[in-house]
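Open question from group meeting: does this chain pack into something compact, or does most of it stay loose? Before anyone orders reagents, we agreed to write out a predicted structure and look at it together. Recording both the input and the output here so the notebook holds the full record.
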Amino acid sequence: MSDRAHGEDGYVYEQVVAGLGTVALRPLDAERDADVVHGWVSEERAAFWGMNGLTRDQVAEVYAHMTGLDTHHAFLAELDGVPVALLQTYEPTEDRVGECYPVEPGDIGVHLLIGPAGEQGARPGWSAALMGVFAAYVLVGLDRPRVVVDPDVRNEKAIARFFRQGFEPGPLVTLPEIDLPDVHLPEKRARLAFLRRETAFPA
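Structure tokens returned:
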């Protein structure tokens, strides 16, 4: 597998995964990508993403707001040009999760939503390969020492996937409700987990 970061074609990161194809990340375009993202977050399988019931325009508004932030970023992952996942990164010190654990210098938070299987159907190892690409981007590409994730404690499938990827279990925490004019997030019981760069990419 090989990888590179570049910007001429809009991608911030690109990695060739043997047997699967080229996975590339580009900044999410709130309006252009709203139909795709709305379709994903409206599925029952994405209930823990917290956007079930939103209209297409409401989804666009959420990501348009995020585009204006310096601390939170959304990216669309494409496999050979076809959208396959949504990756969000954020600074824990500027997020509610930062109130729930001792943030270390350089920590970066990640939210991940893998899209539904396409026409080819489910592919063995796909989720692990995609998470490996994301880990390479945030830990190596962005030069961060540690990733934190905060899946809903009820989302046992996602939690198990993170642990298989090498994440270390963290504490059970309650993320506080956020009720602002532009953002509302209900209180959330979450299982924190952490992945250090030296664990994912040992020298």
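Observations to bring back to the group:
The chain has a mean pLDDT of 91.
Residues 23 and 188 are 31 Å apart (CA to CA).
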